[in-house]
Each structure stands twice: as structure tokens, then as C-alpha cells.
User: Fold these one by one.
Assistant:
Number 1:
Amino acid sequence: MNISIIAFDEFTDIDLFLPWDLLKRVNAPNWNVQILGEQSYHTSKSGLTIPMHGNITLANSSDVVLFTSGPATRQKMKDTQYLSHFQLDPEKQMIGSMCTGALLLAAQGLLKGKQATTYPTAKKLLEGFGVTVVEKPFVVEGNVATAAGCLAAQNLVGWVIEKLLGTQVKETVLKSILPVGEGLSFD
Amino acid sequence: MNISIIAFDEFTDIDLFLPWDLLKRVNAPNWNVQILGEQSYHTSKSGLTIPMHGNITLANSSDVVLFTSGPATRQKMKDTQYLSHFQLDPEKQMIGSMCTGALLLAAQGLLKGKQATTYPTAKKLLEGFGVTVVEKPFVVEGNVATAAGCLAAQNLVGWVIEKLLGTQVKETVLKSILPVGEGLSFD
């Protein structure tokens, strides 16, 4: 099971690192989580440079593909060369996005005529792709899901884990990051 | 204003990246957030290698020092050479921890006879330092604060920002990561 997170320069830190850590907490055979980019390294909006695990073209053979967010999505949604690397198939793959990552799903025609959510500042841009943008943390349309607001990463990751490994694994993973006394207990 | 986050190998990803991103969202003059370690690079529990901004000794001249968490805290709490690098002063500095980072505060004598919180698996170890461990997401004792459960990073960061820059800045920063429709709105 290959789960790919798509990154690029100026990615929003939490929108990459929260899904990443949550997905890496899954203890299941052949569960491979990887961060993919165009270069060997990408630097976050806050200035952290991290190594990629592979090129974005690996997304095409992944079981799950999640697009992170950041200012660059506004350029990349118009970058036909960048977009041409992706041949994603929602019939065979689970595809999702955090915040403005929805613009990249829309630019690939994955949200046309569908409902989706995105970061407030990208609402109009997303509507420009013929998407019905709704004020919800998480929207699922078949095998395509959009989450918005960093903490909605929990919904997106929960959707992936529940669908692939069941409710119990999902709940165990999501519970592990809750505050002590508010989900996590000493018993 | 220098805010230092202390990292080490096998740090818990969210416990570093969530405070980091939140603190970097502050837009204030001379607001410098840095990640400090013993080496130039440290690798997270999930396998991400990131560059440090400086050596841990810079913590001693920082206004705020926050310890992240991870399995290594169990060794480092007994590592007198490691601990000797820190000469922190809660009279002059704000000092805090995420999850098992509380063990490092305790090992420096910063929690003796005080209340604190930590990750459930470290409760007994923390009690071994003469700390009263309470099942709460966040505990403040003067200028020393402990948070537990990854999402309690919001409490820890909120405490720092509110104390240094006021309630309004704190609320703006914390709101920016809430899910759409559950704190963040399209208006």
C-alpha cells in the first residue's frame, strides 16, 4: 500500500507534517508513506528544508495521493507542464487535498461539477474550476476528498485509514494525538 | 525576541512541527523562532531529517525555550553531559515542554514539587522526579508550562504568544489552523 503526499516549495508546514506523522503511526504490513516532489528537497513556507522520498510521477502508481497546500498552488494550477506529470485515476486511487491543494485537484479535472472545500482565501479560485465550494472541514465525493483548515488533516487521514484498514485502526491513530484529559488518558 | 525549540533525534514530528508552524505565523518585529539541536541535522521518529538553526546552548540566551518530545527523552533525562549545556532561568525565561519533553524539564530541576503533565507512558518516570503529574492537556507553574498530547501544542503556543504579544495575536494565530466551518469561515 503506497500512500503519497505531494509537496512543493513553500508548502504549508502543518498541512504536510500533520498528515505525514498521522499516516506514519499506522502499524500495518506493506504500509508505505512517502513525500513526493519535483526536486530532491523542498522548503516549507516557514523555511524548513526537507528531503523528498521520490519524484511526483510515483503518484501515478500510488494507492493514495494527497496534495498538500501552500502559495505555490496558485501558480501550479496553471502550470500545464507540472500538471502533465499526473495521470491520476479516482476509479483506482484515493485522491485528496489539504486546503489550497484542492486547486491542484480541480486543475486536473477531478472536482468538476462536484462539491469541495478549500482554504477561505482560495474559495473564488476553486469556484472558477466549476466546483461547488462548501464551508465544511471535509468533503468526500467518491474516491476524491478535500479537507480545509490545517486541523482537518485528521478528517482526511481518518478517511484514508478507515477505508483501507477499518474503523479501529483509524480511531487508535487519531486518538494518539489528542490532548491528555481530552481524549488521551493516563489509564 | 528569541523563541527556541529544542530537538534531538527521533523527535515526535507533530510535537516539533505544530509549535514551529504556529509560532512562525506570528507577524511581529524581532520575532525569531529557531530549532536547536546538538548536531546540524536531526531526524524525526518518522524518519524526516531537518536542519537545525543552531546549537542547544543558544537556549540559554533565549526568551522562550520549548522542549519537544520523543523516545530519546528517556535517555537524555539521565545524560548529565547533555543536561549540562542548559542553564535555564525561569525567573527570566519562559520554559515549556511537549509530551515527554517534561522529563527534560524535570531533569533540570524545573518541576520539583510542582504540577505538570506529560504523555501517559511517561507519567511514572516524571513522578520519579518529585513532580505531581496531573491528567490535563496543559499546566502552568509560573514561567514553566507543560503540555501533553500533540494537539495541546495549541495551548503551549497560545500561552507563549498571549504572554508576549497579547490575546488578540494569540487568537488570530490559533484560529488560522482551525477546520473550515469549525472556527475558520469563508467570510
Number 2:
Amino acid sequence: MDQSFIPKNRILLGPGPSNVNPRVLEALKRPTIGHLDPQFIELIDDIKRLLQYTFQTDSDATITLSGPGSLGMEASLVNIIEPKDKVLIGVGGYFAGRMKQIVEKIGGIPIVVEQEWGRAIDPQKIEDALKNNSDIKITAVVHAETSTGALTDIKTISEIAHKYGSLLIADVVTSLGACEILTKEWNLDVVYSCSQKGLSAMPGLSPISFSDAALEKIKNRTTPIKSWFNDLNLLMAYWSGEKRAYHHTAPANSFYGLHEALLILKEEGLDNSWRRHKENSVLLVKRLASIGLEPLTPERERIPNLLTIKVPEGIQEEVLRKKLLNEYSIEIGAGLGTLAGKVWRIGLMGYNSNEKMIELLISSLKDALSNKIV
Amino acid sequence: MDQSFIPKNRILLGPGPSNVNPRVLEALKRPTIGHLDPQFIELIDDIKRLLQYTFQTDSDATITLSGPGSLGMEASLVNIIEPKDKVLIGVGGYFAGRMKQIVEKIGGIPIVVEQEWGRAIDPQKIEDALKNNSDIKITAVVHAETSTGALTDIKTISEIAHKYGSLLIADVVTSLGACEILTKEWNLDVVYSCSQKGLSAMPGLSPISFSDAALEKIKNRTTPIKSWFNDLNLLMAYWSGEKRAYHHTAPANSFYGLHEALLILKEEGLDNSWRRHKENSVLLVKRLASIGLEPLTPERERIPNLLTIKVPEGIQEEVLRKKLLNEYSIEIGAGLGTLAGKVWRIGLMGYNSNEKMIELLISSLKDALSNKIV
């Protein structure tokens, strides 16, 4: 039917998007201005500064891409990798598997370290692989594997990678803003994220940051970057320097939203946000236990803002998930890949990480489960 | 400073973005929902249907990409072109030049037909090139070359391309919604556009459509598509069929805006919109003549919704342009590439194509010019 789309409001407690902070939604409707307007250049400089705080880096190559986190994954790989480059990837879930696919598509050679889904990537396996393959100069891991709920120790893996002369690319799509990430201190060479999880902005943007060593690798390429849209050299001509060269038309309204979201995070303080996500995760696990539900991932390897919960024996996961959506207007996530049908994914991210959401979820889940959906 | 970004409102009469219809801005702030929510699947089905109307095609492979028009250019080329494929490109401006860059980056071989900037691509030159290179199976042109104001006859060029067994990729970034485009009738194999020009939505999305012949070319590839994010096969698994497979997190709020914009265009009717842009273009040229300004491009090769105007002798183009922005809050565009410093680019697109805007622009221009900016 030809009529305006008025979405029915949802409580978004899946793997993302999470509910957007109302201040961000208000920002979206501000009047669009041009991407070369001096006001807009001030805005992107401000976004850069706020992203440097959020990523905890002082790298000038800290920008947002004009597309979702998946674009960030592709951009990080396509800038760094040349044909025939070996890339070590720790794969313990769907999103690391996607890294492998992209590496293959752009002509790199993925060397995969496999990990059981639901567990963090074992740093020892990364070390063994690097020890046995001295020509690997690029390592890539997912910090918070959204498909399994496992949080990998990227600080330790970064130390190992650099010990063997490898750069580290870290996917922080699900962790940025919600989990401790110290990009500079941990020597992370490329980090990329999204706007709609820990940052509580609308979906559609991908903050990304490159270290000096990553920039050096790009500078020393002997083959062209196999993308124009994601070519960091072209992007930086817009995001840096005295004269800003047009690259593409920036999504102005989404930039307003991201700016507002980053401001909100800074107002709270990163430390406070990390602590809040951690505390609410502990509370959620405790409350889930009270209704007989338990996480897939061991406690010390658990993403605080995204839990995978085992579907109890005798419950049809899809029926319960649809019931929650249709009767309680609560969205939770299904399992992906090998975990499909076996887990639910429950996110408490950004704006939604609070006790009220936990109690709402638990009472709704309890109610729905008691109706014996078998 | 850490405060919300409140843009000063602008009258956007440059090459885009144009001012966004207020209904679209209102739509942007509706609550975000998940990309797998049944409501959202209905929304993307609706967007597809409205885009089919806008492009005048019945192809199921009619979707929007989750990034700006530049991403659409890259997506169209990366899906169709395999390494060593020869691609004929008519180059008479900045954006066709970008096509050439992308073809090179992804390993194709560009065969360029040069055209003077400010003129439409000569169909005869395309025919000569195809006649002399029987192994060219892909031709690419820009319909409305935003950098020069020239409108190329893609209907005729499509006939020629197909006569020689070549597909036609047409960039309709600046023309969609404002100029006649009959994708199916004219046999255009790939068309891509943007959201912020003729459609009057916020910037950031790229509608795109593929013909059956284009899909066949993709199906018969012997090498992988060198992008995961732009891989049409993966995108179509989300945009079509019974079961919608997750690809990336769609920018929900921008999709709300695009949907509203497409609805507004349908309410007006495509024919009416094309006529309105044409009539206002004629009026604008007449009114510009009254203050001594004339277009670069000959009348029959002129983009109705984007004029390039010669900077008069003795006027510093940048000084006048900045004066318009700072004192009248009107944005017009500078020249790009070889036309830098020589032209202004004036857009009357979508929501802004009306007499009131013309009179506002003319009185402001007249006023600013009379202050002898030399």
C-alpha cells in the first residue's frame, strides 16, 4: 500500500540494532547540509575527535565510513591486504568466517586457526600459527564474536602478533563503547565498529581507525587498493588536512546522529559505560539463572553486552522468539551458523543496558516460557 | 566543543544534496527496528516496488545499497567486470573518469572514448569504438554528468551497445526522478543512483537495478566478485525470496526516509516530476540570462536539474560562492576537475525545483554580483 511506513516500536534486545537514544533520533531530523559546507567540516573534525576518545587512540586516521560495520570489515581488509598476502584469522564464529570469505575474494590467502564456537580464540593457537608461518604479516580476529557471545583477549593476541612482526586487525563491531578497548595502548593496527550497538546510534555507519604501522603498510603497497569507495588514501583527503577534497557525499543526517551518540558516551565516560555493561551483564545472567536459562560461553570469555543463551530442552527456539516479538514487542536474536536453533542471543547494549530492561525481559521470558511452547 | 551539532539551515542549490523534503526528515526519527523484523521485510519489499516504479523496470533485482551513489558506481562495476574484461567508457567529465579509476582498481581494462567537458557523449564515438573492438562486452556511461551539466542520450547509446553485444551500465545518480529514464524500455542493464538529488531524501543510499542480461553475466562469472559487501548474490538473498538471509545490518532510519521520498515522488507522478524539472530549468536559464549569466552546455545536451554556468569575466568564482553561502545561506557548487574556477553548478532538484527557489537565487545572485566581487 502506498502509505508512510510507521514502524511499531520494539524493545531491541537482540545482537543489534539496540534501541537508539532519543537524543540521536532527534538529531537525525536536523536540516541536511552539504558535505563541503564549512559547518560540516567542523562536524567531521568533531566526530574524529570523539571517535579518538571512543577508540582510545590519537591516530589522525580515525574516521567513520559511510556504510555499516560489514563495510568496515571489508575496508580494513582491502586496504591492508595485497594479492597473495597470507592472513592469519582466528575463526570461532560466523563473523570471523566472513573475514575469511573477504580475504579470499580480494585475493589474499587466509590461514585459519579454528576455535570451538562459543569460546574465545586461544592466544596460544595464534602464537603457534605465527611461529610456524614466518611470512604471515597480518593477523585478524574478532574481539566480540556476535554469533557466539565469546570475547577474545585482543590485548594478548596483539602482543603476540607484534612479537612475530604481524599487524593486528581487530573487529570491535559489538564491543566498542561497551567493553574496554585501548587501541593505542594495546597496539591495535586496524579497529572498526558499527553505530547501532554499544554506541546506541541508528544503524548505517562504521567508525574505523588505523595505526601508523597500518598506514605504513598501505603506503608501501605495490598493488592498487582494490576498491575506490574504501580507499583510505582517498578518504583521508576528505577527513584530514587544510584543503578537504570531495570523495563521496557523506550521509549528513546519519553523521548528526553518530555525533550525538558519541557525545552521550563521552558525557557518561567510557569507564562508566564499560562498568555499567559489565554490572548489568552479571545481573542478567543471575536473573536468567532464576528462570532456568544459562549462557553458552564460560564466564571469563563472555561478551558483557551480548549473551548467547542455550535453548532449554523441549523448547522450540523460533516459536518462543516469535512469541516474544509478537506478544511482548521484544526482539531477541536467533543463533547463526552452527548455533542456529541452539541458542538465543540477548543484547543489552548502550541505551538498553539497564535494570529496567533486564526485569522487562525476564518477566516476559518467564511468562512466555511458562506457556509451554514445545 | 562538546555540544550537540545544530546545523545552520541552508538553501541547497548545488549539485546535491538538495533540500530534503520535511516529510522525509520526519520519517528519519521514527523508532529503529531490526533488519529481520517482519515489519522491516515489508518495508524493503515496498521500497523495491517503489524503486521499480522510479526506475521504470520490473526487474526483481531492484534494491538500494546501504551507502551513497559512489558505492553504487563501485557495486555496478565490481559485480559485472571480471579481470581483463574490456570496458568501454564514455568520458566527458569527472564522474566518468571515476568509473575508469574503479575499472582499473578491480582489474578490468578501460577503453576510453574522450568527449569535451560540457558536451554529451557522442553516440557515434561509442559505435566506432565498439565496431573496432569486438571483444568489448561492457559499455559504461554517465547519463547526467554532474561535473559538467551535460546529459547523454543513453537510450541511443543503449541501442548501439546492444547491437554490438555489449551490456550498458548507466550512471543515473543526478538524473533519477528528475529526467526521463525508462530502464526496461531502453534496455539499460545496470542503473544506479543516489538518494539526495532528484529524490529529495537524505544522502547516504544508492538505489540500483540489474537487468536479466546483467544477472546472466554475473551468473556466468568464472572469477569471484571482488567484494563481499557489494556482492549482488549475497544482497539478493536478503532482498528476495521466501527466507531472507542476513547480509548486513540495514540502515533502518535512512530506509524510512528513502521510502517516504519514493512515496512523495509517486504521489506527484514521474511524468509530472520530469516535466516540472524541465520547465523550471527553462525558466532558470531565462532568468539567469537576465542577469548576464549563461550555461556552459548547449540547450539540447543540458541536464534540466543541474546547470553549469560560466563564471563571468572579472568575477572570482570562489569569492562569490562563499558570499552566497555566508550572507544568503545559499549553497551552489564549484567546478570540478578541468572546470574548476570556470563554472558554478546550480541544482534545482526534487523539492527545490520550483519558481520560489529560482527567484530567491536570482535576486541573491544579482545582489551579490552587483557588489562587484572582483
Number 3:
Amino acid sequence: MKRTTIKELHQKIGEEVMIKGWVESYRRLGAKMAFIILRERTGQTQIICHNPSETLSKQTVIEVVGTVKEEKQSKYNGIEVAASYNNIKVISKAPEELPVGTSNKTETTFTTELNYNALTLRSERRSNIFKIEAEVINAFREFMRYNEFTEIHSTKLVKEGLEGGGEMFEVNYFGEKSYLSQSPQFYKQMMVGVYERVFEVGKVYRAEGSNSNRHLSEYIGLDMEMGFINSVEEIMEMEENMLKYVFGVLASKLRREIEYFGVNIPHIGNIPRITYTEAIEMIEQKYGNVEGEGFNNEMEIQISEIIKEKCGEEFVFITKYPLSKRPFYTMPSEEEGCSESFELIYKGMEITTGGQRIHNYEQLVESLKTNGFNPKEYEKYLMSFKYGMPPHGGCGIGTERIVKQLLNLNTVEQASLVPRTKSRFV
Amino acid sequence: MKRTTIKELHQKIGEEVMIKGWVESYRRLGAKMAFIILRERTGQTQIICHNPSETLSKQTVIEVVGTVKEEKQSKYNGIEVAASYNNIKVISKAPEELPVGTSNKTETTFTTELNYNALTLRSERRSNIFKIEAEVINAFREFMRYNEFTEIHSTKLVKEGLEGGGEMFEVNYFGEKSYLSQSPQFYKQMMVGVYERVFEVGKVYRAEGSNSNRHLSEYIGLDMEMGFINSVEEIMEMEENMLKYVFGVLASKLRREIEYFGVNIPHIGNIPRITYTEAIEMIEQKYGNVEGEGFNNEMEIQISEIIKEKCGEEFVFITKYPLSKRPFYTMPSEEEGCSESFELIYKGMEITTGGQRIHNYEQLVESLKTNGFNPKEYEKYLMSFKYGMPPHGGCGIGTERIVKQLLNLNTVEQASLVPRTKSRFV
């Protein structure tokens, strides 16, 4: 008998079928009946089981032959499968007691969840997170491809110092020092010279401090870079349209999974674009004086609150970021000390850094020097610019941050399948 | 004036347009005319330029305002753009002499190509390779998603010994030893317990020897794993259908790019499945005695030739691989010494290893012991099996190998944007 998947059951009312999956729950109803909730890749269904002889423990893998019935009371698509206990075959038996609950009512610390990752990922809550993440990533790619971006897969093993050192993980490469890449920036720019518009979905490594609420040592970067722009505004427009598309896809495909977290999928209108200077003024007006340059975490939360109050938007672009806070390849603005770069803040957390880049060879060499680098060491990178580069720019997005913010998770770690932080390597 | 892309030109015959791109070639025709071939993301077109005052060097980035004309002689979609030299604006000037040709006639060694990567990737030949690779990867994902596989993104930073040591790159993780992952195998299996069917596209790291014809230190792995299989045959069937889909997509979208390499897109019929023992017999019959166990490179070429002669197929599955040559999680066959695992060989090169895995907890613990490992150290991995795992299996595919074999490239390095091998780190 061929297996029927749960989502196909409604086409087989009255028929005998064979279904397979994991026991999600088992409930005895008197001596002669039991209810089993079965889980597999296409969903869950209810099995009404006659003459049960023994309890089936949760997570046990079974094969069931039964008859599909309409049952208005059933939460599972108005369907249940009636089976005699004899027709249930145990494929893989789980122990009677699980070390940690996979039901969603159980209060479990995240550390415990990770200690039992293989088991707790099977919970509705955690499996939803990564289903949503997969869809965010796929929708990003779809949008990029539709807009004639070519996907690239650049190396994650780089030589020292390419981006001015910083917090990188060292790799022993056949006895030589190399590092895990902090960003595909240089390769994206190189490939703008080839395909004009490129994107990459890939791992990004940052040996940063231990603020595991927002930092991961390894995260999934969504990167894009586009040539022949007239200004940085086009990058923000592209990102805004991308986010509209991504959230649109989520709304149409995963509404149930997202609503599980008690959140709404944001409707993105026109994302406000305010300059860094304007943002600082707004924050100072409401929260008092700000010291130093650049946004800290608190300010990200503050500006989000202000914008939310003002126009109801959960996203805000902060433009004209101070040039001194930006890497050497950033295009300076006409306004002294400003740059053509931006951040996108979503519900109080930066999820994107982007901007226009310097495309003129001489200007880029100058900027390297001003920033204290030796252009000789950047020869390979500079080659793209020596041989014809159009005005261009792009941005890098942290996937786990989008997911964390969308679902109101406590930490960005919770949006990583096997999170790596300074304090955690499980 | 808004930019028109080259692929939109045919809709604008007789109109004035603004186009932008790189000078692919510049050819003077007498004193009053010049032909420019312009390249951008959607293609190439020909510009006929009146009253040129100076030569535009190759790779220079320009903006041109001109009139779209039908020109039957033009190789570029029967179209050309007529422009006065005054209406050509240089955006980014390339030097008169390029250090290496990007035209396809130039004979350049691969080392030289890599030394000038930013420039040589702009050649039709090299840019085609990575356009094709992007499409292979995307088609793989499309097929997987269509078949209800969920995409995962597992960590590439792992602890020592997880897969029994081997040739791994060591990473300094905040002062602690860790390694770059050799395979997402353990995470794929863990996620079978969650989503039943999963796939991953991600970097795989192998600190292997220097046979750069077939080994990369970093390659793009296409991995899949599926639960509730009846036998390993279903894995091969899934892969066969996936390949049919991928090559079908290539044929419909990138025929021109592939034909550039003078190759045909293979029509995949039913890929022959022969056992390891049968394969050895066939090889011995034709080429004489074989020593040792397992296939070497030469034998992969030999069996491909035999199969090609016999039934015209460029692919062949070698099944029932010797168990001793396979990792501890491999499902043993009923036949003594054999395993339910396979390789897929494409034109003389292995592009896939796959198979059914052990899903029974006790059997897996036994197998760990038999293979000399301590089950205690595999507790996290074993957890999936302790708490209910269905029969399952999967495979891992080397993207660069598929592309190399399809396009008859000399080495697998040529299918990597920034190749990493033992002898090469540029």
C-alpha cells in the first residue's frame, strides 16, 4: 500500500489509507479507544484508535492503516483516521519519558532547549521559526532573481586584513593563517563588474563580544549589490520592495505559523527615511542629550518608538550616516562628514547596513590611505575599479535578526538552528 | 532620461534611448564611424557611433543616448543603436591596455586568469560558467521545495571528531579549537526528525590533498535527506528526477551559454544502476585486474566509458558499495560486506555520494563501536535516533563537479569563483 500524506487525506474520505509519522500526542479515552495526533512533513492529523493494547509514547514513529472519515469536531482539517490498534505498526519506538517537553506549554530555558536540540526542534514553536526563516531566505532570492540579480557564492576563507582586521576567526589553512570572512563585500563589488547586479546568501562570521541578544558568531547574510545607480536612494528602494515582497510571501504562505507567535505580519508602506542628524535631534528632544557618534542599541529602540508613534511604521531608514563610522569604501556625501550610507532599523534593532560605494579608482585609493591602509595590499580588490566600475551600492541583511524581530523572539540565537556565540558552542 | 536595458531595446525601435554598460569592444571604421559593443546585465548590443573623436578602451563604463534601429546584419537581436559621439558619456575610464585579454580568443593560463580575477571574470567564457552554476543551484532548490523538502542552514563550525576526524581545517574559536564542517550530514539527519525532508545548499570544507582537478578545499554542497523511505532506491530516484529537472531548466534558460562551451546538455533517461561488484567485473573484463577496494579516479573513467558504450548514458549509479569504505552511519545490506549506499558517476567523475542511513538507535550505537568510536562522544547526534527516527537516507552533491563535467572544464577549480585548494589561495 502506498503512503498517503496528511495533506492528501481530504481527497480520500471513506477510503482506506496508509499514513506515517511521529506520535505528537496519545490520549486514552476509556478502555476501548485512544486518540493519537500524528505529525509528518505536510501537517498533523488525528487518529482514532480502537482497542488500544498499549500506550504509544510521544515521538514514536508509526505506520497506520485506517479509514479516512469526515469529523466536523476535528481541528485537523475536519478529518480523522479511524484505525484498529492491530493496524498500527511501530517503526521506531521512543522512550516513555522524554527528558524535556516538546509541547508548547512547557516552560523550558533556551539552554535546555539547545541541550536537547534534536528533540526540541520538533516542537511546533521551534520548527515554525526555521520554516519561516527558510521562507524569508527563499523569498529574498526570488525577489532578487526577478530583478535580474545573479546569485554568487563567494569564498568564506580570506586572507588577513582585507577589511582592516577587526574581529575575525583565524583558520589554519594547510599551516598558513587565514580567516573566516566577515562579509562578502569585496566579492560582491568584484561581481558588479561582471553581472552588474548580484546577490549572495551565505554564512558571515564575526568574532564579536557576547551580547547574544543581537550578535551571532555565525549568521546567514542576505547580501546584494547593484551597479548603475543614480543615488543611494535606489538601494533603499530596492530593499523596501524586497521586504514588501518577502512579507507578502510570508502572509500568503505561513500566516498560521507566524500567528502562532501572536504577532502580525507588518504591512510595509513607505519606510520613512530620516537622516542621522534628524534622528539624533528627535532622540534628544524626547530622551535628552546623546553623547558620541553613531547609534547604540538603546538609540535604535528610541528612534523606533518615535517613528512608530509618529507614523505607525515599524521600519525606519537612517540615512547620511557619519562617514567616520563607515568603512573606507563608503561614498562620502556632499555634506561634510556625512556618507551615502544607511541603516535599516526594524522594531528597535538594526537589520541592515548599506550604502553607495566609491567607484572611482583614484578616490578609492585616496580613501584607503586616509583610513590608514596600504593600497598595495588591496591590489586585487582595486582591480575592479581600475578597469571600469559604474556607480554602485548595496546592502547586507541579517536573516536571524529579521526573524527575531518579526516573531518577537528574545534573542537572535533563537533564530539560529545551532547558534554560535562567544559563550555558546553546543 | 530613464535608462533602457539592452533586452528592452527591441520594444523601442525608432525611439531615442539611454543605455549604460561596459565597452566590450571598439572598432574604428574609417574617419567618421566606430562600432562599439556594449555589455550589461541583460546582454550585449551594438552601437554605431558617428564622428568619434577618441578611442574608447575596453571595459570603460559609458552612458549612451542614441536611436534604436533595426539592422538585419546585426548579430545582436537584429538591432543597433545609432549615437553621435557627443552623446557618449564616459562614467569610468579603463586604461588603454588591459594586462590580460577578456576576449575569448586569448589563450590565458588559469593562474593568470585568477591573478586578474576581477577582469577575466568579465569574459563571456568565465561569466557563463558562474551564470550556469547559479542556475544549477537554483534549479536544485526549486526541485527540492516542490517535493516538500524544507531548506536548512546548518552551522559550519563544528567540534572535533564528530565524523571521526579526517582532514579538517582548524578554527580558533575564541581560544578554543573548532573545525570547519566537512559535511552537514549530522544536521541533515537531525532535521529529518523535524521536517522529514530537508535540503541544504552550503559550503563544505575538506583539507584534502592537492589534486585540484577534482578537489576543492571549499566547495558548494547540494545536500538532501529524506525520511520514510522504503529503500535506497528512492534516494536514487529522487536524485535522478532532480537532475532531469536541473538539466531541463538549463536547456530552457541557458542553452546559448552552455553551447558556448561546445557541449550538449545531456538528456537523462533512466540512469543505469549497477552494483559495485558488477562494476568491478565489467572493468576487469575490459581493462584487466583491479586491486584493493573502492573506486579510484581511473576506475570512474573506465566504468563511465563502458556504460556509455553499452547504453549511451553519461551517468551511472554504482550501488551496494563496500561497507568498509563507508562511514559508520551507513545502512548495511543483507549481502555480507555490502552497504545500501551509492555513488553517482557523471562522465568519469563521482559527483554524488549517498545512501540509506541506520535509523535504529541500538544498531547505530553498535556501529559506532564497531568503527572504533565512543558513543558517549556522539550523544547529541544519537539523540535524534533515541527519540524516534524513520528509515531515511540522502545524498551530497558537489556543485562544481557537475558544472565541470557538464562544460568539460579541465579542473573543478574553474567552476569556483575564488578557488581554494592546497596549492592555491589567491
